[in-house]
Amino acid sequence: MQGRVLDTSALIAWGKRSSAYVDATVWMRTEHRDYVVPIITTAAALTAALAQLPSSAAPVIDVLLGMDGTTLVDNLTPGSAPGVAEVLRNAGPYAAEQVTAATVVQAARRRSLPVVTSNPFPLQALWPEIEIDLIP
Questions:
Q1: pLDDT one-digit tens code per residue, 2-20
Q2: What is the C-alpha separation between 95 and 66, in angstroms, rounded?
Q3: Is 31 exposed, middle or buried (0-12, 13-18, 19+ CB in 10 A)?
Q4: Cα separation of 136 and 22, whole Å?
Q5: To the nearest whole number, what is the mean pLDDT of the chain?
Q6: Residue 4, C-beta contacts closer than 8 angstroms, at least 6 positions apart
Q7: CA separation, residue 75 to residues 18, 28, 56, 92, 120 (Å)
Q8: HSE (CB half, 13 Å, CA atoms) of 82?
Q9: Quick check: 136 pLDDT over 60?
Q10: How far apart are CA 42 and CA 50, in angstroms?
């Protein structure tokens, strides 16, 4: 399986330059010369990460978003809302707090890709079968 979906924790690790694992996950794409291995994230995960990072990390995030094959997907729009709502049904009364996790789960589910994260629990609560690529 090629490609990865980055959740908020993975984006924060990239922005802080704090995880060799996340670095390797992103840079592993350069080993594939004949095709681009996608790195996917969501607008909600990006927003949550930027809110938790110092402003000095914004250029580091911009580098990631500017790489070939990095895709910012699944803006929460009327067209994507039904798929995210389907994932959120498992969140019950805490649905509003799970929107970011739900967008990440939906992006991974639609593409059959694992999610790079340091905290799999909110993702697995929404979709127990999700494949996790745990940041060590």
A1: 789 999 999 999 999 999 9
A2: 31
A3: exposed
A4: 9
A5: 86
A6: 25, 38, 39, 40, 113, 114, 115, 116, 133
A7: 27, 26, 24, 22, 21
A8: 1
A9: yes
A10: 12
Q: Note whether 123 and 117 are within 8 A (CB).
A: yes
Q: Is the pTM of this model over 0.85?
A: no
Instruction: At 44, list the tokens.
Output: 């909600």
**C-alpha distances in angstroms, 62 versus 11, 45, 98, 100, 121?**
11, 14, 25, 20, 28
The structure tokens 């990006």 sit at 46
Q: Taking 90 as the threshold, does the pLDDT of residue 82 lie above it? A: no
DSSP structure string for the chain: ---EEE-HHHHHHHHHT--HHHHHHHHGGGG-SSSPPPEEEEHHHHHHHHHHS-GGGHHHHHHHHHSTTEEEE----TTTHHHHHHHHGGGGGGGGGGHHHHHHHHHHHHHT--EEES--HHHHHH-TT--EEE--
Distances in whole angstroms, Cα of residue 101 to Cα of each of 31, 32, 119: 29, 29, 10
